[in-house]
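General statements about sequence and structure are easier to judge against a single worked case. In the encoding step, the backbone of a single protein was reduced to a row of integers, each denoting a local shape. The record that follows shows the chain in one-letter code together with its fold in token form.
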Amino acid sequence: MKKIKYPIKKKRTGRVDQGKFAFNNPYKPGKVVKILFYVLIILLPVFLTFLYLRTAFKVNQVFSFPLDDPWIHLTFAKNLAEYFSFSYFKNEMVTAGSTSPLYTILLAIGFFITSNEMILSYVLGILFFLLAAVAFYWLASVEFVKENVFAMICTGIFVIDKWMNFISVSGMETTMFIFILILCAYFYRQRRTVPFAVMLGLIMWTRPDGAVFIIALIIDYMLVRIYSKDEIYLRLFSNSELKKIVLIFSGILGLYFIMNLILSGSVLPNTYNAKLTYYSPEFRSRYDFLRNEVWRYFTKDSKLSFEYFIINLTMLGFLFSVGKLIFDIFNKTYNQNTLYILFILGLVFIYWLKLPYAHRFGRYMMPIIPFFILVATIGFRDLARLINRFTENLLFAKSIFYIFIGITFFLGVKDYDDNREEYAIQCKYIYDRQVKAALWIKENTKENDVIATHDVGAIGFYSNRKIVDVAGLVTPELIKKINDIDYVRYMTDYMSRNGVTYLAFLREWYRVANQDALFTTAGILPPETMEVFKFEPGKTKILSREVNSLLMKAQMLMGRKDGQQMIYVLNRLLALDPECAQAYFLRGFANMYLNDNNGFERDLLKAVEIYPNFSDAHYYLGEFYKNEGRFTESQAQLTKFLELIPGNKMATEFLRIVNDSLQARQNTDAASFNRFR
């Protein structure tokens, strides 16, 4: 294996800084040590991810994923395996709805080996994690040519990273993407023409945002060509090798574009356009993205304190490397971190510009992590060299380096352990909403029913029903209308035309008003509520995005018992949609907070007028009338509530009290009548 040699930079005097007190740690592991280290970085990812799975199963008693997206890949893969069609339902919904067709194809091959989707996803995720660990060690060994112990340390930090372990058992293509990026960088550094070209071509087959890495590679190589005139150790590809790279890369990339064109008429997957449209910068803050989803993701805290400084030593190493890159550019010297820093900053920039959203758990930022670790470790080393250069105290410089590394390791282990519980919680969160809703749909609907939803993963995979995706990922016809102000009306018309019979929505996305949910997690699993409704064209009422937003704001204010603000928000809502029973219900409580009992009664009666089966409104009216001594009216409301929600203990007890009070009143009236007769 050929190594690229990065000699210690020369001082301005032209002499190499390799004096008696120079900071360096030359180490080349022997064959036995190397074999043992390979065994360790292969077994450790398996062991660490197994602990995640064991913890989650012990808590939840089921296997699940912390995201809904894995089942999108699995649904495409299952249909590809069964029908040889890149379709989301049997062979009837052919579309380029997979962000990672390469991962989907691998899953499809896996379905010929096992039908257990959880085992298949876990095995692939863990396999690519351990392969990424091996590839990362290769790359780190290239960057730390004569200091292999640093490469080992760097690889250890990568293996214990909490997000790498988390995403490995999350059913996503992320670890495969990271593996391909790392291997591509390694083959590039080694100038291995054919494998480099193949990996370069596979990047886009894995994720379209991999284009940023390709651009970073091109820029880096252009700089290598410029600097190689003065820095002769920088190796170039020959002209014939460059032609070969272009040919192989173009062929693989061309097949990717052709496949998407055939499936959906676009060179990129539906998911690309759908997410760019839904998470448009017009509707999201770029500043919040940088602050919360990038900076805090990599720094873990926002308080400037000693603890903050200690926690974020890794960021310190990274920023030192960025500063050194700027210094080297100014001095027209090639910097070994150029590729990695360009990719990190480029990926953040492209999301900031086009899609200021890192997704749950910062998933879109995870491909940065291995390169961030590598750059930070190189930064630690270079900082120690700088300290050594000015102090000529080798022991002090090495102590600083190993203290930084030790703290980073300690915090990495702590974060890993804390994140195991988070993984279990998030797996249950998805299972109790998406998976249970999917199983309910499978058991309570007919095979020819059509389900409209915005979370198409688990519902598409487990329900075995045809799906209309109102988020556009697998129903691209809806993408262009998603951010229209009247999208709900357009969406409702589309569902009517396409035979939709049931809706499965999170309230926070789309809310159905004035209708009973057939399946709901309301009151059981906060904060998000999954509901399934029967869709009746012309009758089912779906609130517009603006109205739903105002309704959620009113609910938030209800938690503060801020009646005045609630009334202001709800009056705005009712001006837009005067037939929303939930708005009258909330306004009733706002009136109660302001001691307006007449307003409370008036609004709750209006709510049940619009929505006769509004159980909560009947319950609170029954309780209100009971407390007011209006027992006949209370009896009617509580009886209606118990018809809708049989067996409710509180309502049953209230009704007993009301009936006893009515009976006592009747007895009193009868006694009075007999006395004066």
In short: Confidence is low (pLDDT under 50) at residues 1-21, 302-310. The longest strand covers residues 502-506.
